[in-house]
Write a structure and sequence with these properties.
This protein has about 400 residues and is of the alpha/beta class. Helix content is about 30%, strand content about 15%. The structure holds S-adenosyl-L-homocysteine and iron/sulfur cluster.
Length: about 400
């Protein structure tokens, strides 16, 4: 474990702390309940929310909008703010950073920061694995944070490295929103001012941890001020989750990991298809009331020779037409990993696939792999180093 002494101590502190005394992750109502013994008025709770979710403070003693005496009483009762802490950083030559963030039991969660625009280094910097050092200046004009919803995953897609872990545990709402808070704090990013996008495409299947995931979304869209239209959740096609999602007032955009043009191929790479077929998934997606100009994304991981040929593209076109909702396709060249028996697609097959969709009127984009050198690319999150 490469964490410094200071960090290790705080992880151990967090581990021995009863989790009902950690305040980060609680809604206004939950904060009120947790602190009801202190006789606080509404504005004190709002000040605490600002400290937690806007200022992202790490220590109750820093909440200077509260009188010192109140801070001390709350601290003495064993409460802590509980902002999750980054314990390890891997920095890619392309500016992408991958983090291990301490969960409440000392296990680590993975999160990825992908800056875009302005001075983002396109490939010259040295690989730098230091933890302590903060970025020196703002070299990005917008950024995307890739957030995990579980440690490991139960879905068992054959091409995905996270699947190799199995499901270890669900993350709490605080641990999900906390990944975003820790990363925003590191970069001095403010969602009110900076263009921050969130993608729930890290480790895990968000719709198999539905409640915590949606509680996190409400914190992120509410006190953390990230517009719901800047968030995208990706699911492997958990139909009951999609149907619940369809009822939500505040919700991210939806992406479906399609990855195959029809069930026979999909069953081989995503066994979940035997539980819910592509047609059932699409029927569920149809229940989601889309906002103006909103499109559903179909993600499609291209696996060399398996699902990347022109006839597959033609089937995808038919499928998108049958779906009858506004949609686009994001093509992702498979990112390789150890012990995963697939091959990367040829570059010209990728280009041909995209072209074939486009010429038949289906919007299609090729997703650039980010941070491959630090195993931060899609599907590569597998707790490859550090605090296991
Ligand atoms: N569990 C959710 C979200 C996390 S996976 C889901 O499956 O949708 C996010 C995306 O990464 C999915 O579209 C998945 O198909 C893709 N993916 C998984 N492993 C990959 C790999 N090795 N290379 C490229 N994309 C991968
Ligand atoms: Fe889980 Fe998504 Fe990986 Fe499938 S692709 S195993 S659903 S994380």
């Amino acid at each position: 474990m490469t964490t410094g002494g200071q960090t290790l101590t705080s992880i151990l502190d967090a581990r021995s702390m009863p989790s009902d005394r950690l305040l980060f992750g609680l809604s206004n109502e939950q904060l009120r309940q947790a602190l009801q013994g202190f006789g606080l008025l509404g504005y004190r709770i709002r000040q605490l929310e600002t400290a937690l979710y806007r200022q992202k403070l790490a220590d109750i003693r820093e909440v200077t909008t509260w009188p010192k005496e109140l801070r001390e009483r709350v601290l003495a009762a064993g409460f802590a703010l509980g902002l999750p802490e980054i314990v390890e950083i891997f920095r890619s030559v392309d500016g992408t950073e991958r983090y291990l963030i301490a969960g409440r039991d000392g296990q680590t969660v993975e999160t990825v920061w992908m800056p875009e625009g302005d001075g983002v280094d396109e490939g010259n910097s040295e690989l730098d694995n230091s933890t302590a050092q903060a970025p020196e200046s703002k070299a990005w004009s917008r950024a995307t944070i890739c957030v995990s919803s579980q440690i490991g995953c139960a879905v068992n897609c054959q091409f995905c490295l996270t699947a190799k872990l199995g499901i270890i545990r669900n993350l709490t709402a605080g641990e999900i929103a906390g990944q975003v808070a820790a990363v925003l704090k590191r970069h001095g990013a403010e969602p009110g001012r900076d263009r921050i996008n969130l993608v729930f495409m890290g480790m895990g299947e968000p719709f198999l941890n539905y409640e915590a995931f949606m509680d996190a979304v409400r914190l992120l869209a509410g006190p953390m001020e990230i517009p719901e239209s800047r968030m995208t959740v990706s699911t492997s096609g958990i139909v009951p989750g999609i149907l619940r999602f369809a009822q939500e007032k505040v919700r991210p955009r939806l992406a479906i990991s399609l990855n195959a043009p029809y069930d026979a191929i999909r069953e081989g790479i995503m066994p979940i298809t035997r539980k819910w077929s592509i047609a059932e998934v699409i029927e569920a997606v149809r229940q989601v009331p889309l906002r103006q100009k909103e499109r559903v994304t179909f993600e499609y991981v291209l696996l060399g020779g398996l699902n990347d040929q022109p006839e597959h593209a033609d089937e995808v076109v038919k499928l998108v037409r049958r779906a009858q909702f506004p949609a686009k396709v994001n093509l992702i060249a498979w990112n390789p990993g150890p012990d995963v028996p697939f091959t990367m697609p040829q570059a010209d097959d990728v280009a041909r696939f995209q072209e074939r969709l486009r010429e038949q009127g289906v919007p299609a984009f090729v997703r650039r792999p980010r941070g491959r050198d630090i195993y931060a690319a899609c599907g590569q999150l597998k707790r490859t180093a550090g605090a296991q």
